[in-house]
Write a structure and sequence with these properties.
Layout: H1 9-34, E1 38-41, E2 45-49, H2 50-56, E3 63-73, E4 77-84, H3 85-96, H4 110-135, E5 139-141, E6 145-150, H5 151-162, E7 168-178, E8 187-195, H6 197-207
Antiparallel strand pairs: 1-7, 2-7, 3-4, 3-5, 3-6, 4-8, 7-8
Helix pairs in contact: 1-4, 3-4
Length: 212
C-alpha cells in the first residue's frame, strides 16, 4: 500500500481545519498589506490524481503563475500555490494599484513580481505556521520561488520524487475575498501539497491521527 491509500476523510478534515486557521492568519496579514478587509477561506481539501491536478490547473500546457517552495524541518516535502493568470492579474493590480500590469506580457514590473512573491510568502508561511502550531513540529518554508510558465513545467519539480511512491497529491483550494465583492470576484487558487511519505506519517502521528 502506498502512503496515499492510507489517507482518510478524517485526515483531510484535519488538513482543512489547519488550512482555515492558516487562511485566517494570512487574511490578517493581507488586510494590513492592502489596507482593506480581506477574508480567506478553504472550501475543501482533497486527494487528487496527477491527471486531476492537471485538469484543476487548466491542463499541463496552461500558463499559470506559480509559487514553489520546499518544506523543511521535522517534516519535508514540496508546496505549490497556483493561480490562473487572470486571477493573479486581478490581485496584483489591486495590490500595486496599476491596472496595466499583466502577467501575459513580459517584461514584468519588479514591483508586481515582488508583490506576487510577498503574497506567496504570506500564504505559505501562514499555512505552515498553523501546521507547526497544531503538530508541535518544527516546520518552515524555504524562500518561495516565483514562476510564470506552463503548469506542467512548474509542478514537475515536485512530482519527480513523489511519482516514485504515489500517484496522488493533496489539493487545498483557497479563496481570497476583498470587502464588498461578490463570490465571482474572489481570487481563487490552489495549494498543492506534496509531502514526503515519512513526513506524512510524522505529521499525523503528531496530530494523534493514525495512518494505519
Amino acid at each position: 500500500m502506498n502512503f496515499s491509500e492510507k489517507i482518510t476523510l478524517l485526515h483531510l478534515d484535519v488538513l482543512k481545519e489547519i488550512g482555515n486557521i492558516g487562511a485566517a492568519h494570512a487574511a490578517t496579514a493581507l488586510s494590513s498589506l492592502l489596507q482593506k478587509k480581506i477574508d480567506m477561506r478553504v472550501p475543501d481539501v482533497k486527494m487528487v490524481s496527477f491527471n486531476e491536478m492537471m485538469e484543476l490547473a487548466g491542463g499541463s500546457e496552461n500558463v499559470v503563475v506559480g509559487i514553489y517552495l520546499r518544506i523543511e524541518g521535522d517534516a519535508e516535502g514540496s508546496m505549490f500555490f497556483i493561480l490562473p493568470i487572470e486571477q493573479a492579474n486581478r490581485f496584483i493590480r489591486r495590490l500595486i494599484q496599476d491596472e496595466s500590469f499583466d502577467f501575459k506580457t513580459p517584461p514584468y514590473s519588479e514591483l508586481g513580481l515582488s508583490a506576487m512573491q510577498e503574497m506567496g510568502n504570506i500564504l505559505s508561511g501562514s499555512y505552515l505556521s498553523a501546521l507547526s502550531d497544531f503538530t508541535g513540529l518544527k516546520i518552515y518554508p524555504t524562500v518561495p520561488g516565483l514562476s510564470i510558465d506552463m503548469f506542467g513545467a512548474i509542478i514537475s519539480i515536485g512530482l519527480i520524487e513523489l511519482s516514485q511512491i504515489s500517484d496522488t497529491v493533496i489539493v487545498i483550494n483557497t479563496s481570497i475575498y476583498e470587502e464588498a465583492i461578490s463570490d465571482d470576484e474572489a481570487v481563487k487558487g490552489h495549494f498543492f501539497l506534496l509531502p514526503e511519505p515519512e513526513s506524512f506519517e510524522t505529521i499525523f502521528k503528531a496530530l494523534g491521527v493514525p495512518t494505519t
